[in-house]
Amino acid sequence: MVRKDRLFYYADDDEIRKGDTADIYLFRTKEILEKKGLGDKKVVVEVTTGSLPSNVDWGVLCGVGEVARLLEGLPIDVYCMLEGTVFHARDHSGIRAPVMVVEGAFSEFVLYDTSMLGLICQSSGIATRAARLRKIIGPNKFLLSFGIRRMHPAIAPLIDYAAYVGTADGVSGVAGAKLIGIEPSGTLPHTLILLFYDAFGSQAEAWKAFDEIMPREVPRVALCDTMYDEKIESLMAAETLGKRLSMVRLDTVGSRRGNMPDIVREVRHELDIRGHNHVKIMVSGGLNEESVKELAQLADGFGVGTYISNSPTVDLSFDIVEIEGKPITKRGKVSGKKQVYRCMNCYVDLAISFDENPTCPVCRSRMEPLLQPLIKNGRIVRKQPAPRETQEYVLKQLEKVTL
Fold first, then answer.
1. Topology of domain 13-124+312-398, per CATH?
2. Which residues are registered as beta bridge partners of 48?
3. Which among 262, 260, 255, 253 is positioned nearest to 226, based on CA atoms?
C-alpha cells in the first residue's frame, strides 16, 4: 500500500522487494499452494513474448540488472540473455524464444511475477524504439532522449537509462544522466527566449546570455523557431555567436511545420552560403520513425521525446513449462525447458533443449547459447555491465539486423 505520508504515488525499493507491487492473485496463489502442500514444487518458468509491438522483427532486452536485484537472495536459479541483447519473439521454426528462465520452488518466487515482468517489459520497449531510430539515422548522427516530461518523474531515470541502452547518445534528465554516468544533454527552452524577447526585444539576447553564463563545456545550441521563420532565426544565431555556435535546434510544432525536410534544406543552404558550415542542425518536436526517415539524410541530430518515453511495452509473459522435471504448460505455449541458440553469422535463433549442440539451419555454422546464468541459488553470478558497454553491445548487434 502506498503510504499516506508520501507526496507522490510510487513504490520504494523495500515495497517492491516485499512484493507489495504484485497482483493480488499471486498472494492468493502462494497461500493456497502452501496450505495444500504444493508450495515446494520445483518448476521451470520461461519469460517469452508471442509478438513484438507493431509486429517489428526484433527487440532490445533491457532491465536485466533490476531483475537480478529483485530476485537476489531467493533460493532459485535464473538464466537470462545479456542486457542489451537483440532478441526475436519466435525462433526460426516459430517457437516462442525465452529471454529468461527461472527455476525453483514456485512459492519462493511467485510474488515477483508482476514486478519482474514490469521491470523488463517497459525498459525493453523504450530501448527497442531508441534502437530502431538509431538504425534509421545510422551510427554517425546523434540521438537525444527528451521525453521524460511526458511520464511520471519517479521513472525518469529508468526512461533515460533504457533510451541510452537503446543507443541514444544523450538524455535530458539530470538523475538519468547521473545513473548512466554521463552529462545531461539539453539546450534552452522557448520560455527563456520569450522572457528575453519581452525584456530586450530580441531572441539574440537569450542566446548571448546562454553563451555568457553557461560553462565552456556546454555546447552552444540555439533554439531557432520561437518568433520568426526558422531560417531567419538560424542566421541570427549564427551571426550572434559566430564560431562558438555549434548547432541550431528546430523544434517546429506540428501545426506550423509545413514541409520539414524543405525547412531543413533551406536552413542548411542559407547557413552554408554565409560561411556557417560548422553549424549543425538538430530537429525535435513530435518526431517518430516516419518523420525521422524523412529527415535522416538532412539533419545532423534528433531530439526525440514522447515517441521514446511512451514506447509500447514489450508484452512478455511468465509461464510454467516444467513441473518436477515433467514438461507441462498451458495451451498456446510449448512445454519443456529451452535454451536459445543463435547463429552469429545470420542471426537465426533456435529455441531447443539446453543439452543440444545445434548448427544453423541456414548456413550450418555453429550456434551459441544466449541464456547465461544470472542467479545461482540466490546469488548473482553475472556482473551488470556499465551502460556504455551495453550500448556498444547493442550497436554491434544493430549491424546484423534490418528494420
1. nicotinate phosphoribosyltransferase (3.20.140)
2. 317
3. 253
- Specify the length of the chain in residues: 403
Averaged over 266-282, what is the pLDDT? 98
**pLDDT tens digits, 292-347:** 999 999 999 999 999 999 999 999 999 999 999 999 999 999 999 999 999 999 99
In tens, the pLDDT along 192-216 reads 999 999 999 999 999 999 999 999 9
Query: What dotted CATH number matches 186-309?
Result: 3.20.20.70
For residues 351 and 370, what is the distance between their CA atoms, to the nearest angstrom? 10
pLDDT band at 377 (very low <50, low <70, confident <90, very high): very high
Interatomic CA distance for residues 226 and 224, integer angstroms: 6
Q: What is the pTM of this model?
A: 0.95
CA dist., res. 262 & res. 71, Å (int): 52
Say what the pLDDT of residue 6 is: 85
* Closest residue by Cα to residue 328 from 127, 29, 18, 46: 46
Query: Is the pLDDT score of 254 beyond 70?
Result: no
CA dist., res. 74 & res. 105, Å (int): 10
Per DSSP bridges, beta strands 221-223 and 170-171 are unpaired
Q: How far apart are CA 74 and CA 102, in angstroms?
A: 11
Domain boundaries defined on the chain: 13-124+312-398, 186-309
Best CA proximity match to 243, nearest among 281, 205, 279, 203? 279
* Within this chain, domains 13-124+312-398 and 186-309 share the same CATH topology: no
Residues 6+ apart with CB under 8 A from 93: 350
Contact 270, 231 (CB under 8 A): yes
